[in-house]
Known about the structure:
The chain is about 55% helix and about 10% strand. With about 120 residues, the chain is mainly alpha-helical.
Amino acid sequence: MVASLLKTELRAIDVLARFGRSSFVALIPGVRAEQASPYADRLAQLIQSRGFPDGSRHILTCQYAVASYPKDGSTIHSLLKVLQSTINERRRVAVSINEEKDKNILESHPASRRTVLISKLQD
């Protein structure tokens, strides 16, 4: 589903490839580094605006990173390492923020409700 959606937005000269279990890499020749982030942001918003075809209430999220040749790396491998490192750092920060939100929610409820909330979080 995501690949099909991305392909509709990419140009004929762009290359879309699967990267790992749940990631994609788009090679977008001729786009300068300062143009890449707004372009990637537009693609991320497009992905997040779509629901699942089965009508479920799951939410699609999208994180992206931009690496530019030759500034960020001189080989595909080095560019992919930059992308992966950036995404991993953003995920780490997102998990940290979510853990802090969960902590604040638990602390704002009386002790009797904490047990219920914890059991629901573990389901």
